[in-house]
Amino acid sequence: MSITPIPPLDRLQAATAVLAAKRRTGLAWADLGRAIDRSTEWTTAALLGQHPLTAEQAAALGSALELDAPVVEALELPPVRGAHVVDTSEPIVYRLQEMVQVYGRTISELVREEFGDGIVSAIDFEMDLRRVEDPKGDRVVITLNGKFLPYRSW
Amino acid sequence: MSITPIPPLDRLQAATAVLAAKRRTGLAWADLGRAIDRSTEWTTAALLGQHPLTAEQAAALGSALELDAPVVEALELPPVRGAHVVDTSEPIVYRLQEMVQVYGRTISELVREEFGDGIVSAIDFEMDLRRVEDPKGDRVVITLNGKFLPYRSW
Amino acid sequence: MSITPIPPLDRLQAATAVLAAKRRTGLAWADLGRAIDRSTEWTTAALLGQHPLTAEQAAALGSALELDAPVVEALELPPVRGAHVVDTSEPIVYRLQEMVQVYGRTISELVREEFGDGIVSAIDFEMDLRRVEDPKGDRVVITLNGKFLPYRSW
Amino acid sequence: MSITPIPPLDRLQAATAVLAAKRRTGLAWADLGRAIDRSTEWTTAALLGQHPLTAEQAAALGSALELDAPVVEALELPPVRGAHVVDTSEPIVYRLQEMVQVYGRTISELVREEFGDGIVSAIDFEMDLRRVEDPKGDRVVITLNGKFLPYRSW
Amino acid sequence: MSITPIPPLDRLQAATAVLAAKRRTGLAWADLGRAIDRSTEWTTAALLGQHPLTAEQAAALGSALELDAPVVEALELPPVRGAHVVDTSEPIVYRLQEMVQVYGRTISELVREEFGDGIVSAIDFEMDLRRVEDPKGDRVVITLNGKFLPYRSW
Amino acid sequence: MSITPIPPLDRLQAATAVLAAKRRTGLAWADLGRAIDRSTEWTTAALLGQHPLTAEQAAALGSALELDAPVVEALELPPVRGAHVVDTSEPIVYRLQEMVQVYGRTISELVREEFGDGIVSAIDFEMDLRRVEDPKGDRVVITLNGKFLPYRSW
Amino acid sequence: MSITPIPPLDRLQAATAVLAAKRRTGLAWADLGRAIDRSTEWTTAALLGQHPLTAEQAAALGSALELDAPVVEALELPPVRGAHVVDTSEPIVYRLQEMVQVYGRTISELVREEFGDGIVSAIDFEMDLRRVEDPKGDRVVITLNGKFLPYRSW
Amino acid sequence: MSITPIPPLDRLQAATAVLAAKRRTGLAWADLGRAIDRSTEWTTAALLGQHPLTAEQAAALGSALELDAPVVEALELPPVRGAHVVDTSEPIVYRLQEMVQVYGRTISELVREEFGDGIVSAIDFEMDLRRVEDPKGDRVVITLNGKFLPYRSW
Amino acid sequence: MSITPIPPLDRLQAATAVLAAKRRTGLAWADLGRAIDRSTEWTTAALLGQHPLTAEQAAALGSALELDAPVVEALELPPVRGAHVVDTSEPIVYRLQEMVQVYGRTISELVREEFGDGIVSAIDFEMDLRRVEDPKGDRVVITLNGKFLPYRSW
Amino acid sequence: MSITPIPPLDRLQAATAVLAAKRRTGLAWADLGRAIDRSTEWTTAALLGQHPLTAEQAAALGSALELDAPVVEALELPPVRGAHVVDTSEPIVYRLQEMVQVYGRTISELVREEFGDGIVSAIDFEMDLRRVEDPKGDRVVITLNGKFLPYRSW
User: Where in the sequence is the active site (chains A, B, C, D, E, F, G, H, I, J) (predicted)?
Assistant: First the structure.
């Protein structure tokens, strides 16, 4: 029987350790995605605590990032999703928030017209971010791709 | 001197009138975009009150939608942007909100790694929504395209 | 061109009119469900403004409830969903809220163990409420039935 | 007289220790329910800190989960119920929240019609969660079963 | 078919009309309780919109208070309970709020010790307010009387 | 000059230590009230940190509960009252909260009618909780007894 | 039986009418205080809806301010106190708020030291505001005078 | 170069240490004011962290209160003002809050009438608290004295 | 005695009427400033309801903008300042808000270092906004000019 | 592999250490700006955690302030921006907040008139604070200089 039954690290602490290790090793998020054969975006979200990682994935990432065993172990914990994990006043996140504010009803109307009554899944969902060069200033292009789910009537 | 100095309609009331006229005329948002030679997305946002419309654009949309003169006039008012215009608990909008919650820090990290210290503009920005057919259920693909703006140091 | 472009009633006002008509006619929610061949629960939610009704459904309900034409027309408007539509401090709703508070993490854990990483859909969803007689006091049994949606990784 | 009068663990810390022990031992929630002859759902809620456990129940669960003595002792503390124990923005919990939002008034109306003025108890209450296989995707069926309590007039 | 399907008054407007009629007629709350053979406290709460009134009760109260027919009709509507009905910063209500703040945990502890795990019902509940003369200043004595409801385990 | 000028325990930590000692010693709240010749209710509130205790009272309670010296010393600190000390979503406290919500305006009206413009003191106040046996289920009867304080006009 | 049972004005609307009449008549608050033989401060608060006025006081003020009968009648209604009546972000009110923020704990400590455990009554209270000339800029001196109320122990 | 660059105590921790030392030494707030030749009120506020203290003042107070060197050093730090420093639900502070609520608009009106458009400074401000004996119960008299600052127009 | 004692327009409604009249007449804010010999910035703020206008100023502005008499009269009402007058989520206002968020502590530190303990007045204050041409994109330069006010000690 | 993978200090802790070192060394913010050849304002914001510092900048500042290696290392971490970093109730920051409240709509109107539909960038932005001597009391002049960004239409 161990003396301290509480695990030494949770997913958010593991994310902090991952960010420090990434700085130390000089690896890019794309390198980490390749290490587990997943997209850069999903891998970043997972390492920040938003998606589960299998023991194999955690081990591969731990090896790439030269993480201590407790961090690797913490990466195998369930994800910690929720509003407290992101600060919507952080300037980049706020711009996303403002896009939802300005275009949210537009998206609702266009989805309703094209698909009928339902939603865009945030679960059966994938996301992609890339740089598009532009002489007037390069652009960030974020693609949100979610399955349409119709409301069931019964 | 007129008797009622207060304009009969504001942008939000004009948006309600536009939605009613759209139902009555059976026009699609894409038809309205074509009427003013703008994208479907921008036109929808503008008619919902989020972007300014010139007198010519308001007249063309008023003609297509068979709007009354006071509604057309109200469409020429400045836009009314802000948090009170969208209800983030509306199910479609909430899924966008949850995407920001789950992927907001991921986007911050990827933008910082690729571009350095700065933000994705919500102003020098365009947005596109389209249906992608999929045998497992069609998908909604939303593209957010904003200029990267680096923080100035001085 | 009509003089008043704003529709006389919205979905929430239509719901108020429906409740008054229901009292006047003495019909039960189950009668209204039968009138459109849908479940009592879905029909109640739709008449309270949470689901769309087709022109045929609105006409059948308008006929059963002896509704005025503007109310019937308002029933065909899109639903108005969101946090402002329900008062979570209303005593019955609060008990539902407290059930989520007390058993929310339990449900998360049991879903994760049984199904893996994902959610219970509130969209591909149906709900059923019935009375179960009990000598110690009859019971309300509410069944929530939602499709499991696994998180996509990519 | 002991030197540290403050108990080493509270119910929330005990819940964290239980989750770690469950991962270590590979037991299922149903196994734990069987260990104390209670339902899986009640047992899960109790281990997460929402219900009291007797000394016997705590000992049986401690033995099954190979828990340290301080964790077993903490399981005998009174439950810690309240809004701070659950994060309503966690994606599964939010869907429950949205169900309350969309169907809360429907439930109020149906209860009032069927039972009269009163509430559905969240105390004289039991809950059941099970998987229902479905070729279009398995479903989570949650049954909420609460006694109807009529308002007293006096 | 009536021209105005929306009822002219709701319960809160009826309460305002009742307060005006009470001032006009000079009746006391106790007189109104006697008119329907209920306690003063329950009757006051009912007239303020917190409890349902039968057609007979509404008629008796309407006769005593010389209310118009639409007010009497509105008194028969279902009650409107919820946090928006009371302003907790109103000085008397705030003192009740502060009593809950100062003595809430005390009540929880004493109930748990005396009755075990459960709550004091706010539904199977009655309340009584009376003046107790005191040479140092008369006192308001409020008695809260609720059934103990034990948590069910299953 | 001492090395650690900050006291080792505050009133809330003392309350936690008191609850643990009460469990250990098996004393009832009434026993503790008798130990200092005060009511059970006041004593419970005081031990939970809501009222000041004299050095004599703290010593007597420390002796009864076999408390360490630092806990006894902390009991002599000023009380820590305020909204953060109680969680109004804890199920028992919430029922009190709901009673205030449902009957708050009723109490305001009855006080105004009986006493005139003023409040019920929460300071010159005493509270009493007792069990009343009832064949349909025992009842919790809480008596709130506060001095009426008239508003001064000047 | 009157046709409109709802009174035409409430206390807040009466306050608006009083402010307009005060501008029209050019009376000062002190004039109004003299008209009912009360202090300027109490009278101002009463006319703004925070204190009750007797029929005689309302008539005297109505005569001085040349108010319409419905406004005079509304002045006799019970006061409307609560947080919604004042906007704490209004610049003068905010400075009062900030004084509470900066000196609130100071006042608590000084009251406790001088008087013991209790509060400063906001009910058995009077307030006075006067100008004090000062060559460096005149000063506003506000005197808050409340009875000390000791906590009762029992 | 020191090993721990972070100072051991901040102003709030220093305030806690001061309160403990005051209890230990039995000094009154007035004694502390005399020790630095300032008013009791300003000195109390300063020791609670709301005003800056010079090195000389900190030393004199440290000597009077027999404070450790780290506490004296912390007293020289800049003040920590802001809403988080005071709990407005603490009963004494709440009464101040309620005074602002009930008399805030009155003060605004009286200041505007007497001085014109401007505010009462909370910076060029002093405050005084004293006991006034009264056979019906002693009174707390708090004098708020702030410079009137007129709005500049330009 | 007039029939409608409530003034037909308040400052916010007057501001709406001013914006409509400005559009109709094609005047610039600078034209309006010149009409009353005040700065463009102060005049804009005053017309939006944030500053008082004398009868002469209101008349001059009413003449320039061809306003109706009730609007001119409303411009003479006291200003309506407070948080509800501005929506901090409006995109321009939010950027100001974010500047305060990013640079607020910086400004506090620089003011403290340069001036000592005190604040920058928002009352003895003036503000100026101008365009500065820049080949990379013109710039908005906003100058905030407030008197330093030292905290008084006493 | 290191034993503690979590970095010992974050940007906010580094800011606390910087403030202590600045006090110890007696350096001014302007000295620190000169040490890295940047403005005083930008340097202050960066040291408080709002802007990134290069390794060279961190080393130069660390040398000037005689910082420990862990603090210097922490200064190289990414900035921590967001609403939690500033307390808007701190008196200086609140005045900035109030300026936004009073003049926010004015700035929106003037920007729209002069530049058209768009915003003032808070990213391509610089800020300057200086003392202006004035016989009536010196003034703080803060210049906010942001690029105008027009909304894109597409």
Answer: 95, 98, 121
